[in-house]
Amino acid sequence: MADSWNKKERVKKKRQLKKEKEEKKLERKEHARNGNDLDAMLAYVDENGNLTSKPPGVVHKIEIKTRIPG
Predict the structure, then answer these.
(1) Distances (CA, A) of 12 to 6, 21, 69
(2) CA-CA distances (angstroms) from residue 6 to 9, 10, 11, 22?
(3) Rounded to whole angstroms, how far apart are CA atoms 41 and 44?
(4) How far apart are the C-alpha atoms of 10 and 47, rounded to whole Å?
(5) DSSP annotation of 45
(6) Where is the composition biased (Basic residues) (predicted)?
(7) Predicted confidence band at 8 (pLDDT cuts at 50, 70, 90)?
(8) Distances (CA, A) of 69 to 63, 66
(9) DSSP E strands: which ranges in 1-70?
């Protein structure tokens, strides 16, 4: 049984869309920024509440002396 004109057009359009999608995929792959790992995307907050790109070095601990009654 022969394919109708409409079916041929749908198949043709589907192939074209698949081809365009593959081209876009290759283009994104070529222009991808290498080295964009998680560390490059993180932001840290320092003790003053400002955003920085460097992780905090030493954690400041407050020492509290307690006195036990008795």
Answers:
(1) 10, 14, 88
(2) 5, 6, 9, 24
(3) 10
(4) 61
(5) E
(6) 9-18
(7) very high
(8) 19, 10
(9) 44-45, 51-52
User: Which of helix, strand or coil describes residue 52?
Assistant: strand
Contact 53, 61 (CB under 8 A): no
Choose among 54, 59, 35: nearest CA to 44. Answer: 54
Instruction: Give the tens place of pLDDT for each residue, 25-52.
Output: 999 888 776 656 676 778 888 888 888 8
Q: Within the chain, what is the greatest distance between any pair of CA atoms?
A: 101
- Sign (positive or negative) of CA dihedral 14, 15, 16, 22: positive
CB contact at 8 A, 51 and 39: no
